[in-house]
Amino acid sequence: MEDLSGFSIEDMINVTHVKEGADMQEPKVEQLMDKLRRLRRGKSIVEEEIKDLKSVSDTQQKELENLQTEAYQLEGVCKEKEELCRKLQFQCEESEQESERQLKQSEASEGLLEQFRCEIQEVKLKHRKLRYLHIKR
């Protein structure tokens, strides 16, 4: 696993380099200081990455909370609209029933009206006939 400064984690862990066929030698102060500087650079890079990841995580957590809040609100709005829809459907059914009732009543009234017209016509005809008969006499 390589990091950005060109050294591996194994290099950071191992203090001495062992070459094949060579005896283990004590590292020189300069080598240790160089390794220490690289480790510190690596540490600061890792800390910066952790800081960035924490920031991203915090941002995503806030966004998740906002989305959850919005989802909860939308569920409430959806329930309200479903209830309103049920009420409107009920009102629509009631209006249709009332309309059918009025239509039947109107048809019945038209039937009676036509019947009364016919009766009026009959009465008029009877009166004419009576007048005609009365005039003839």
Beta-strand content estimate: under 5%
Order of helices and strands: HH
Helix content: over 70%
Biggest beta sheet attributes? none
Derived structural class: mainly alpha
> Mean of the pLDDT scores?
87
- State the helix count: 2
How many β-strand runs? 0
Net shape: rod-shaped
Any low-confidence stretches, pLDDT <50, length ≥5? Answer: none
Distance between the termini: 135 Å
Q: Nearest-angstrom radius of gyration? A: 50 Å
Protein name: Synaptonemal complex central element protein 1-like
InterPro entries: SYCE1
Keywords: Coiled coil, Meiosis
Pfam family, one: SYCE1
How would you describe this protein?
The chain has 137 residues and is mostly helical. The chain has a domain at 9-14 and 25-108. It contains two helices and no strands. It has helices at residues 9-13, 29-136. The radius of gyration is 50 Å and the shape is rod-shaped. The N and C termini lie far apart (135 Å).
Structure in a nutshell:
Belongs to the SYCE family. By secondary structure, the protein is mostly helical. It has a domain of 90 residues.
List the helices and strands and how they pair.
Blueprint: H1 9-13, H2 29-136
Which characteristics define this entry?
mainly alpha, 82% helix, rod-shaped, 137 residues, single chain
